[in-house]
């Protein structure tokens, strides 16, 4: 982690077993999910349910990539993104292989890329499914498949970024930091940019002046993250939570980060804990 920044940033290290974890966990996990995905698409022909199956597959493969990065202690997001794209392409391929096998289109397993592509071209001529008496073919069918592939690839990028992108790592202890201290809900901040500027300058007086607030109304949520082993890494996250009541009587909650993983000193950390 570079100390030239006021916020935590991944060091860019890959970890001793990082690449091996990505390859092994990524390929094995994706293969299992791909087989389940291909058979599910075949057994559940509903176009409406198929969307949720594809969505679930995208999230699942993305979770596999994130878990591989977490297990391998990969703090290099470009590498994880590149691996995610490659694993996503493999997920698309293994999904097709499984779907073709589930139909079945041939008496043997079609797995060679050229054979899979020949089957895809053949299906595009005749169509794979119908809805309301209409059978998508040709360019339209390719476009639908393209959207499915894009959704799967998006999952392999967004899920790892959501899980690992903001998770601090202690370079002293060589482990992810998951210990948190949640502070009481505080008053809603009317000028978050000013508070952000103050916090970045090391001025925590405004935050200390905030009173406790009810979570049922707009408020500010604060969380401390720290490494309990070496006690050298301390970070502060402040989130603005705006709650609005809609016309139908329901409430809409919108969250916005004021600061996330702002580096703080041990002394500041202990003072912030007093707000618990």
Description:
The protein is an alpha+beta fold and 276 residues long. The chain has two domains: 18-167, no CATH class; 175-273, no CATH class. Helix content is 51%, strand content 15%. The chain is built from eight helices and six strands; from the N terminus they run H-H-H-H-H-E-E-E-H-H-E-E-E-H. It has a four-stranded antiparallel beta sheet. The chain has a two-stranded antiparallel sheet with strand order 1-2. The longest helix has 27 residues, at 138-164. The chain starts with 17 loop residues before the first helix and ends with a helix.
Keywords for this structure?
single chain; 276 residues; alpha+beta; 2 domains; four-stranded antiparallel beta sheet; two-stranded antiparallel sheet; 8 helices; 6 strands
Question: What's the structural blueprint in terms of helices and strands?
Answer:
Elements: H1 18-43, H2 47-71, H3 77-102, H4 113-126, H5 138-164, E1 169-170, E2 175-176, E3 179-182, H6 192-200, H7 205-209, E4 219-226, E5 234-245, E6 251-263, H8 266-273
Antiparallel strand pairs: 1-2, 3-4, 4-5, 5-6
- The helix content, as a percent range, equals 40-55%
Using DSSP, what is the number of strands? Answer: 6
Number of domains: 2
In which order are the strands of the major sheet placed?
A: 3-4-5-6
Q: Catalogue the unreliable spans.
A: none
Q: What integer value in Å does the Rg equal? A: 24 Å
Largest sheet: 4 strands, antiparallel
> Order of SSEs, N→C?
HHHHHEEEHHEEEH
Morphology call: elongated
Overall SS class? alpha+beta
Strand content: 5-15%
Mean pLDDT: 90
Distance between the termini: 28 Å
Number of helices: 8
